[in-house]
Amino acid sequence: MDIKTRMKPQMGAIPLLLLLIQNAHLLPSAGVVSSKPAVQPTSGSQSQIHTDRYLGPEDCLKQQYTQLSCAKVSCPLGHRCSEGTAMCTCDPKPDECYAKEKVCTRDGKESKNRCHAVAETCKDKNKAPVFSHQGTNCRSNNAFQESLIVKDVIEVQLPKGSTKALVCQEGWNIAAAHVTCRKMFRTLAKTAANRKYSDVPRKNIILPDVCVPVFCKGHEYSLAECHIGSPVKLNDKSHIAVANCYSNSGNPHPGNKCDIGKFQCANGKCVLHDKTCDGINDCGDGSDEMCCKECRNDKAFHCKSNVCISQHARNDGVPDCLDGDDELPSAGVVISKPAVQPTSGSQSQIHTDRYLGPEDCLKQQYTQLSCAKVSCPLGHRCSEGTAMCTCDPKPDECYAKEKVCTRDGKESKNRCHAVAETCKDNNTIPVFSHLGTNCRSNNVFKESLKTEKEVIEVQLPKDSTKALVCHEGWNIAAAHVTCRGMFRTLAKTAANMKYSDVPRKNIILPDVCVPVFCKGHEYSLAECHIGSPVKLNDKSHIAVANCYSNSSNLHPGNKCDIGKFQCANGKCVLHDKTCDGINNCGDGSDEMCCKECRNGKAFHCKSNVCISQHARNDGVLDCLDGDDEDSKATAMPAPSHAPVPEPTNPQLQLPQRPRPPAPPAPPTSPPPGPSSWTTTWDLRSA
């Protein structure tokens, strides 16, 4: 009998074998449903590498790439690429751990930033993970904790209140289970599972009545490093996450023997062949996702380096693909502050937390134009009938006697009138250019998106200087304004990229950038605060705006994943991007109902609205009661890299805008303003 004849019975048995394996979740003890198996005892041999439409080619698979192979992926936080080995090591360079943020460690101490805390764990994997949470409220009894309790159910203690919670089954997978088991010093996970909440034994224990959804990429050292959503109330029909870990004495490495129909990971484990190239780290070392001609489903994103990652990892502010293409359609970009992502599933209730709420407020769908919550922006007035800011300001609400220039080189009565004109017809190019009388059509403010990388270039009045936009201070609110000025609806993300990485084919790039600060409601960057030009070098980073096209579907309806907030305009943003003083939604609805603000960069108005600290004492009322402009408020300092001179004509700082229904008299002298943001360009002074 030849080899082909002898193989026929075996090949015919493969579908049956796969069917049994795929339905193995029906076999465990009552109440448990198993999903995404990673490692199982195997027998037989596999003498060759098996590829298919998705997995391959062989030359790639033979390299045994993993999630730490920097020839295939961007190194995780706290690691850097060693050129000698092409592997991510635990020794990040200082400029790769540059973020100035306070984070707390598990022992109640402070660390310089999250990157340093993760690197510390990476260097010594025999001790408990270091990172706990961001902030300065560091106490050992207030640190993030996780443990496996009865039936391998995962319990976590959340900082800021020491709330205990279980982990929700929604979004739970083998990648997150690996992280849990790794933290328990239990090597890796056999399976990710879920169990009915009502089936969990309660003898001698008190179970939390809430769960939190988590999303992990699989390389993290503890769940504290993963994205954790807001708590969700549990009921008897709810399912919660279970992690089935290998014991220390278990053998997760079956060597070189994997059954036909299984893939051998770089670490020796065996996983089902159809669990490769699905965007989920089944192996535990990521090797099942490193060599993929395409991805198996639409829940995975295909990097240009032929790696598959989860769609949840896109636009999360961290580049995972080698070229950063998970963060923008263009290569070489690093993303910050994601605003809107495609979502699926449903969210039947409004989720509140310590910051966001209460529900009664959220149900009102307030926005940045709701004058029951905020002062109307310049060029608008409050309509008493609708309690909304309209584009028809009363004469006494556009009282300033100042000369301003419009984009067509003409003069307007004042900035308020110019903005109102744009408001009335959103299909026109924004009207306002700059303050002053030097009005010529070739000497007006202009903004454009340069190259396929969507770098922002502006032309400043006075001497028509061209500049890019600095990355410091750049955020999604400013990106919304840029996209709106381009008639591109709103921004997907605010991004930054290295100045030296910008393609220069057939274009001459400016060698300076300007910092900008926008509130998010403006019609163009001309209405924002613009700082003085800063010289660029090869190490500088500049701002990028990734806009939706006019044909994009910005409104996913009423379907937002758990852990995301639904904006009044229908968009979905991460729950922890609400109440941070940044207009992530584009309509401001993520900041309108806030019991308190999430960080020291936001100011809490008496009307329970969060605004940026940069908006305090800027001469413009934002809070409903004007408490952002009172004498006790202090303006934020200038960006650390931007030397900003004194204004050449401080009399032209913006006057305070009256709030309905009884506007105050115009100020006789300019209010204390943010001199750190006042520019010497015609935009702000003649």
Automatic annotation (TrEMBL):
Residues 676-686 have a biased composition (Polar residues). Disulfide bonds join C216-C226, C258-C270, C265-C283, C277-C292, C303-C321, C518-C528, C560-C572, C567-C585, C579-C594, C605-C623. It is a single-pass membrane protein. The keyword Transferase does not apply. Residues 154-259, 456-561 form the SRCR domain. It comes from the Eukaryota. This is SRCR domain-containing protein.
